[in-house]
């Protein structure tokens, strides 16, 4: 037989694209359209309905950036269309085919009932089936003119990312708004041809099935009447039935399809637009559920549900009905799909607590799995946190984006730092926006790593990132692919069902231990430094407010614990941990608002803490220590006078001077407190840091070396830092001044000032305090660089085989060598409050109050010694998607801690991030709780969420070893129970001599619920 493949493939493509697809709508009549441009921000439906509309002509430009235009559309179904399937079809002037970041609209009835959204891949609204001739159609359409930030493939900066800079030129040209007949036979033929053609093209050239499909399509096209596509469509479909009816092979891979609409809570649009996106997408989804009984939609992010509940009650009611019908599956159990690395441990716990409670309260459903398809790597504490929140499985897709190494598994057990394992799956389709194309189906099978051990995978289907969700076309593809020879089999089902089947099929799946590091998007540990700083400080202020509110509730008559305020503030912080806000990868508008929100949160939390402390009564000035560790350090009084005080963990003490072990001396550029001696060079670097206790020099080379690197990644500017950034740099060694600014027995400080680049300045104050080996470097940067990254290096004379970086509820060790490609790819990593380097007998920690990104490297010197260097990433200057990212002022502190154990690093990390608070208080209550036993660290103290008055304490083992001890209370104890994160009892805790006995494995998290006598 002659090879006719090329002729057939080209014929089928042309007939499909130019004749079949264009005949899907058999006839159209235009709407009469009027328009009203809403001034400023979006308005409620009632205001828009009462507005004055003006005639609007198709082909007219509309929509300034971030504007809202309301269109009134009126029409009538022609009498001769009676009995046909009639739809409204609207093209707002869509650009490309991505629904997420462009014109999109929500269509309402005139009574305000939302019907459905329209976007480039979902342009229809059902009118009637069957239609009545002469019936009227009357809609109010809320159209958003969001700018296309992705235009030109992120190749250049744009001012469109903030309404303050976007201008007012119309972005779109309205193409058409019609009432139309959907020719169902042609529409189904369109899908038949698509599915068969795409399958054919994915099969091998020597696969008989490929040629069978080709000739079936060729014969079917012979039956297509080009002058009457509608009249011949049924015959063409009948000819294709045999090719579509052949069952899949018995060993075919099974893909569990789950409807999905990834909606970034903010990204290339602000939070206010996400609130509207949820209504549009969820309207589409509930409409699709009405049309397809076998449709199931998985949706995470409790915050988005709450937005719909509060702003679109009719859509919310439809969601509730879909949940009852089993077609809508709440998943994920988190308040938002947060970043996987940057939120603190307690914040990750609260993501699950608030998220799971929302779903239980509103739907009576406890979610079983973690749904995080798009976060940029996942910390190694997740398995334990997830399991303690009642989760059984974990799903993500993002690791498929790795730049260097292909992750070796798609289904596996993920083991965290404490030994907890959770069943985990990465969809081999390599997208969370699947549409069941032939290429996707083929890729999923080809890519699947578990062949021979397992035979099923999951595919989230539906348009996403900016929402949109599944479409009827995707559902039709799924039906055709349910059992089709040459393809994987598709079954639409709840993700819980998939995980139950996958775990049963593959119980001995391989194990991956430690973090799920994404070999991409490493700059998200640093970009938008003020956003990250706002998060860090909010987390610590929340801890402080809860501790002292609990103290006041226990000891101050008449004080009322601020449950509602704390709940609201926690949810604000959790929202801004979304995986495009906290990582710094959103437009300028998002980060401008985030900074304002963090400032508001700080004000409220400072006020709550002040109220709690004041409730203890006016009296003597006291010092309050929110840290879980005893502290002896220098604090300043209201007039700035330094005082050396000793304060117990989670307690308070009078502001009374205590003699420090040794005073601080300042001799030229040398600071000495008897514990460390610090020499500052003329160029402002640390030329020497000598640990006087150990009798050794800490630095192998000048420390606090500021290095400015050129930083232009290959593609995702705000997201990525690529390895070549290291090759071009400037060391900032031209200090304009090095000046002693404080010379007191308790504090010695030297200020270093620098100017560089495009008018940027850095002022650093290097401080040594009495009684502490910690060397603080308070930093004030006025930053005006572009496409640069600034790092601060500490090359220490330590041969460290690995670095230890704090993560949630513990720390992770990473090799300092690059023996393999996996280690080499970790050239930029994340950590929280500290990084620790050690050789047997000696260690050093670098501590910070707001940075996350860092790198660790090692070299061997000519003298045979090893230099291990920690470099903190301080600030970046990407231009996309925010052209002004990180520009302006930054204030933060980092510190060098010589002679530090891991426990020292933990304690000083808390101290730096939780400054002592000086306030007047008459009472001197005992700390709410006191942990006794090395490694037992209290992370949170609060009242139980059920308002019972019980005290909830969350603690963990922080050194990485076993810990035994007790937890003593500052109040009469009647009972204690171990609970899960949601404060539900698991078992009774042992009480001995009025204290709770505590025994922890390495990095174990323990939540205790304490009942007061």
Automatic annotation (TrEMBL):
It catalyses: Hydrolysis of terminal, non-reducing alpha-D-mannose residues in alpha-D-mannosides. Keywords: Glycosidase, Hydrolase, Metal-binding. PANTHER family: ALPHA-MANNOSIDASE 2C1. This is alpha-mannosidase. Residues 519-598 form the Glycoside hydrolase family 38 central domain. One of its GO terms (biological process) is mannose metabolic process. Gene3D superfamilies: Glycoside hydrolase 38, N terminal domain, Glycoside hydrolase family 38, central domain, Golgi alpha-mannosidase II, domain 4. It is an enzyme of class 3 (hydrolase). The lineage of its organism: Bacteria, Bacillati, Actinomycetota, Actinomycetes, Kitasatosporales. Its EC number is 3.2.1.24. Pfam families: Alpha-mann_mid, Ams1-like_1st, Glyco_hydro38C2, Glyco_hydro_38C, Glyco_hydro_38N. CDD domains: GH38N_AMII_ER_cytosolic. One of its GO terms (molecular function) is metal ion binding. Belongs to the glycosyl hydrolase 38 family. It comes from the Bacteria. It comes from Streptomyces tuirus.
């Amino acid at each position: 037989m002659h090879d006719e493949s090329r002729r057939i493939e080209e014929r089928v493509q042309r007939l499909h694209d130019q004749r079949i697809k264009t005949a899907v709508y058999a006839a159209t009549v235009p709407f009469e359209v009027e328009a009203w441009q809403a001034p400023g921000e979006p308005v409620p439906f009632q205001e828009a309905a009462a507005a004055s509309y003006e005639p609007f002509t198709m082909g007219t430009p509309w929509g300034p950036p971030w504007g809202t235009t309301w269109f009134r559309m009126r029409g009538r179904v022609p009498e001769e269309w009676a009995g046909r399937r009639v739809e409204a079809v609207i093209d707002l002037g869509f650009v490309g085919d991505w629904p997420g970041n462009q014109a999109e609209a929500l269509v309402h009835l005139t009574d305000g009932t939302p019907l459905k959204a329209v976007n480039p891949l979902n342009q229809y609204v059902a009118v009637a089936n069957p239609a009545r001739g002469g019936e009227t159609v009357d809609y109010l359409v809320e159209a958003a003119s969001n700018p296309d930030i992705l235009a030109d493939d992120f190749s250049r900066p744009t001012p469109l990312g903030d309404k303050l800079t976007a201008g007012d030129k119309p972005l779109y040209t309205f193409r058409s708004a019609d009432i139309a007949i959907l020719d169902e036979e042609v529409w189904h033929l369109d899908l038949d041809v698509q599915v068969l053609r795409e399958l054919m093209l994915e099969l091998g050239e020597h696969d008989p099935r490929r040629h069978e499909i080709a000739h079936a399509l060729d014969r079917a096209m012979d039956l297509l009447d080009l002058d009457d596509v509608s009249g011949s469509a049924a015959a063409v479909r009948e000819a294709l039935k045999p090719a579509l009816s052949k069952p899949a092979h018995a060993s075919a891979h099974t893909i569990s399809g789950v409807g999905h609409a990834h909606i970034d809570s903010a990204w290339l649009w602000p939070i206010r637009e996400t609130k509207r996106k949820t209504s549009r997408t969820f309207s589409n989804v509930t409409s699709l559920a009405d049309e397809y009984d076998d449709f199931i939609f998985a949706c995470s992010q409790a915050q988005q549900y709450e937005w719909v509940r509060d702003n679109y009650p009719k859509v919310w009611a439809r969601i509730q009905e879909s949940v009852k019908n089993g077609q809508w599956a709440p998943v994920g159990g988190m308040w938002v799909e947060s970043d996987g690395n940057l939120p603190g441990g307690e914040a990750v716990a609260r993501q699950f607590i608030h998220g799971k409670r929302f779903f239980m309260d509103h739907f009576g459903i406890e979610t079983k799995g973690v749904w995080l398809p798009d976060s940029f790597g996942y910390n190694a504490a997740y398995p334990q946190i997830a399991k303690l929140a009642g989760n059984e499985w974990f799903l993500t897709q993002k690791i498929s984006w790795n730049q260097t190494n292909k992750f070796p598994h798609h289904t596996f057990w993920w083991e965290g730092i404490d030994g907890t394992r959770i069943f985990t799956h990465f969809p081999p389709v390599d997208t969370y926006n699947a549409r069941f194309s032939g290429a996707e189906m083929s890729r999923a099978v080809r890519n699947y790593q578990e062949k021979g051990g397992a035979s099923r995978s999951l595919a989230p289907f539906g348009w996403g990132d900016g929402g949109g969700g599944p479409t009827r076309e995707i559902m039709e593809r799924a039906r055709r692919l349910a059992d089709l020879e040459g393809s994987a089999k598709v079954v639409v089902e709840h993700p819980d069902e998939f995980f139950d089947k996958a775990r049963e099929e593959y119980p001995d799946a391989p194990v991956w231990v430690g973090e799920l590091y994404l070999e991409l998007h490493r700059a998200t540990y640093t970009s938008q430094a003020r956003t990250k700083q706002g998060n860090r400080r909010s987390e610590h202020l929340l801890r402080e407010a809860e501790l002292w509110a609990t103290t006041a509730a226990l000891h101050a008559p008449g004080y009322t614990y601020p449950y509602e305020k704390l709940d609201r503030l926690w949810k604000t912080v959790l929202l801004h941990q979304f995986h495009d806000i906290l990582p710094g990868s959103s437009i300028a508008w998002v980060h401008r608002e985030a900074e304002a929100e963090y400032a508001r949160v700080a004000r409220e939390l400072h006020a709550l803490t002040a109220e709690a402390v004041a409730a203890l009564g006016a009296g003597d000035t006291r010092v309050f220590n929110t840290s879980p560790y005893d502290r002896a350090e220098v604090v300043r009084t209201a007039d700035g006078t330094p005082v050396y005080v000793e304060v117990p963990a989670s307690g308070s003490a009078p502001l009374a001077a205590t003699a420090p072990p040794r005073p601080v001396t300042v001799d030229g550029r040398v600071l000495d407190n008897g514990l460390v001696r610090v020499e500052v060079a003329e160029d402002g670097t640390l030329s020497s840091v000598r640990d006087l206790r150990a009798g050794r020099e800490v630095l192998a080379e000048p420390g606090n070396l500021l290095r400015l690197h050129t930083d232009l990644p290959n593609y995702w500017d705000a997201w990525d830092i690529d390895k070549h950034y290291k090759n071009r740099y400037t060391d900032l060694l031209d200090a304009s001044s090095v000046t002693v600014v404080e010379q007191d027995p308790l504090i010695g400080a030297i200020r270093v000032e620098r100017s560089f680049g495009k008018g940027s300045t850095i002022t650093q104050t290097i401080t040594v305090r009495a009684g502490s080996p910690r060397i603080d470097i308070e930093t004030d940067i006025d930053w005006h660089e572009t496409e640069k990254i600034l790092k601060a290096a500490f090359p220490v004379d330590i041969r460290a085989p690995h670095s230890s970086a704090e993560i949630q509820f513990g720390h992770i060790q990473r090799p300092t060598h690059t023996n393999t490609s996996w280690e080499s790819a970790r050239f930029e990593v994340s950590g929280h409050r500290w990084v620790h380097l050690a050789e047997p007998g000696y260690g050093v920690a670098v501590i910070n109050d707001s940075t996350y990104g860092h790198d660790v490297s090692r070299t061997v010197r000519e003298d045979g010694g090893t230099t291990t260097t920690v470099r903190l990433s301080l600030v970046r200057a990407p231009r996309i998607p925010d052209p002004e990212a990180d520009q302006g002022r930054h204030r933060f502190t980092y510190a060098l801690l010589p002679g530090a154990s891991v426990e020292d690093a933990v304690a000083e990390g808390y101290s730096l991030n939780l400054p002592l608070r000086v306030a007047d208080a008459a009472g001197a209550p005992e700390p709410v709780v006191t942990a006794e036993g090395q490694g037992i660290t209290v992370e949170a103290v609060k009242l139980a969420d059920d308002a019972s008055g019980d005290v909830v304490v969350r603690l963990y083992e922080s050194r990485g070893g076993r810990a035994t001890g007790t937890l003593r209370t500052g109040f009469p104890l009647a009972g204690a129970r171990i609970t899960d994160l949601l404060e539900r009892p698991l078992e009774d805790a042992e009480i001995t001599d009025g204290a709770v006995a505590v025994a922890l494995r390495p990095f174990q998290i323990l939540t205790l619920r304490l009942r007061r006598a």
